[in-house]
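[Discussion] Sanity-checking designs against the backbone

I'm trying to build intuition for which residues belong where. Below is a structure token string of 203 positions. I'd appreciate it if someone posts a full sequence so I can compare it with mine line by line.
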């Protein structure tokens, strides 16, 4: 292919739609996690949705590698997709460790899962508005960032209750599972920061 044709070739790819599809699948995974912890869902559902989110991310990365001109910085697209992917990865790891170590759900786990779901809802809303209404996207990004503080407060309260006494084995296991939620909230915060940075560049 001639050099000028490489630059002239256009791929009909909407990266906003791909990011939104990935975020929506992540939200579905978080909703499945809430149901699982409330005793109303199955762990397989979380795993299935995590795999489907991975599939969307693979398509996004493949298209990113084949597209010369992107609507926003390719580094931002990649970073936002990775941060969203980490959110559902932590959700899946929570389920996996609860199964492996045969841990039952509790009030703190349910609270943290609901916070994670709320964070994912704001990420979906932010990405949905990113293209046409960037200022609305920022509003949702700011709300998503607040989830990190709420999660950290819940995380510390859970640790305080956990280390007030009990089975040492269960204390160690639950501490690690609580950390998954705290880290997942960090990734929600990172995704929100990336969205805010994108808006600064495009407005």
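Best answer:
Here's mine. Compare freely.
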């Amino acid at each position: 292919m001639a050099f000028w044709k490489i630059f002239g070739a256009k791929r009909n790819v909407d990266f906003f739609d791909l990011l939104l599809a990935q975020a929506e699948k992540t939200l579905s995974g978080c909703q499945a996690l809430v149901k699982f912890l409330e005793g109303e869902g199955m762990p397989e559902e979380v795993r299935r949705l995590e795999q489907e989110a991975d599939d969307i991310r693979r398509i996004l990365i493949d298209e990113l590698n084949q597209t010369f001109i992107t609507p926003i910085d390719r580094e931002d697209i990649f970073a936002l997709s990775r941060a969203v992917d980490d959110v559902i990865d932590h959700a899946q790891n929570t389920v996996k460790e609860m199964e492996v170590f045969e841990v039952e759900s509790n009030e703190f786990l349910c609270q943290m899962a609901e916070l994670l779901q709320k964070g994912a809802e704001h990420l979906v809303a932010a990405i949905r508005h990113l293209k046409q209404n960037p200022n609305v996207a920022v509003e949702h990004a700011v709300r998503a960032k607040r989830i990190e503080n709420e999660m950290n407060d819940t995380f510390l309260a859970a640790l305080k209750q956990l280390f007030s006494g009990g089975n040492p084995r269960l204390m160690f296991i639950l501490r690690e599972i609580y950390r998954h939620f705290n880290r997942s909230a960090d990734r929600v915060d990172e995704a929100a920061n990336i969205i805010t940075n994108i808006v600064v560049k495009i407005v």
